[in-house]
Amino acid sequence: MNWVEKWLDATACPSLDPKRDKQVESLAHEIGRSMRHDGRFFHIDQAAAALGILDEDLPLVRDRLYELSLKYVLHRFTVTDKDRAGLGWVARKLQLTPEQARQVELRVGRKVFEEFLAFAIAGGFLDEEELGQLRSIAECLAVTTRQLVMGYLVESGDEFLHRIMEGMAEEGQISDTAWEKLMASVEVLGVSPAEFIAALRGHATAFARKIVDRARANGGLTRNQIPPMQSLVGKLMPAGPRASVTVPPAAAAKGSRPPATA
Fold it and tell me: What is the rounded CA–CA span in Å between residue 51 and residue 45?
């Protein structure tokens, strides 16, 4: 699946500048070639010395090579016993502790799960095949779909809100029927509707403000941006008094609706 390859490619050392990131990637491939050639006689320190890898770069290169090994496995959305044994061998040869290997696995696996979830659920629900693939990714990581979903919502809730707003809005609104389908899909993943809403509610104001800020930078809000944002934020707010997000007059564009609150 091309989407999976794209998501996997986005996981590596995100904090590095592009030039150094490219160097780390190249060195990881070189170490990988040495590992395949030398087999059980491979030694990471000797391979690093032969390639002139600096001490400060070696941890990054080791992590990247383990990432690459894991990515190869995750393309199939599953990790067999044979795969797990192979990954264990690679980790030992790279002198990664079980904790270090686990950190890499969770970083890569969570990224794949989150991107797949956001893509698949953007239309408002998950079909059986999509649910099966999400469960498989969670099983690969030895965690639950609930843990992965809640982690994503807490850390990247505003991004998730953008995805579902763009995918679910019809005629400027998130319909009750579409929302109920979304809640049903979320519940199958182990997260109750109340937990889902509570996790996203904390991101609602920031989400709406980003739309306003973007509109201000672009010269105004178009009429197809305001209603779906308001509709989605409204779904997250408790009954009774609601926190408001005001659209500044300066952000209104020609053809926009009057300033409103959500």
Answer: 10
- Look up residue 257 and give its DSSP letter: P
How far is residue 69 from each of residues 26, 35, 75, 142, measured CA to CA in Å?
14, 12, 11, 18
Radius of gyration of the chain (CA): 23
Separation CA 228–CA 230 (nearest Å): 5
pLDDT of 146-198, one tens digit each?
999 999 999 999 989 988 888 888 888 889 999 999 999 999 999 999 999 99
Write the DSSP assignment of 92-121 as a string of letters. HHTT--HHHHHHHHHHHHHHHHHHHHHHHH
Cα four-point dihedral sign 115, 116, 122, 126: negative
Largest CA distance in the chain: 72
pLDDT digits (tens, 9 = 90+) for 48-69: 999 999 998 999 999 999 998 8
- Residue 55 half-sphere exposure toward CB, CA atoms < 13 A: 0
According to DSSP, the residues that pair with 170 across neighbouring strands are 173
Distance CA 34, CA 44 (A): 9
Residue 17 has φ and ψ, to the nearest 5°, of: -70, 155
End-to-end CA distance of the chain: 38
The C-alpha atoms of residue 246 and residue 9 are separated, in whole angstroms, by 38
Residue for token digits 């308001």?
Answer: 230
Beta-carbon contacts of 245 under 8 Å, excluding residues fewer than 6 positions away, are 204, 205, 208, 209, 212, 233, 261, 262
State the amino acid at position 108 in one-letter form.
V
